[in-house]
Amino acid sequence: xxxxxxxxxxxxxxxxxxxxxxxxxxxxxxxxxHILPRMGFGLCAEIDxxxxxxxxxIEGMSYGDIPCxxxxxxxxxxxxxxxGVGSAISRACKEKAIERGxxxxxxxxxxxxxxxxxxxxxxx
Length: 124
Known about the structure:
By secondary structure, the protein is α+β, with helices and mostly antiparallel strands. 39% of the residues lie in helices and 32% in strands. It has a five-stranded mixed beta sheet.
């Protein structure tokens, strides 16, 4: 698995992940992907040259004087779920956000069952 920064050339795959995982309209996802570089960054995971999953980090927030980043929209194509793609992308996002100055990483899991999973991955 290769984890790398996502870019415009990846938009078709990123939109497909988003549609499969979250069901948001393509226009909203397209808009988000275009404004993301002003708000943070996105990473994607490739397996055998195919994008398997993606996650995004929104930066520029703070808790008092402490810089924070928000892990957002971790999604993995169903056929790639199980071997840790989501965990690897989430950890890579956390590491990159910390390198860029974040001291707290936060998220809001879509399901209560995910709280422990995220806590193990992004607890700082």
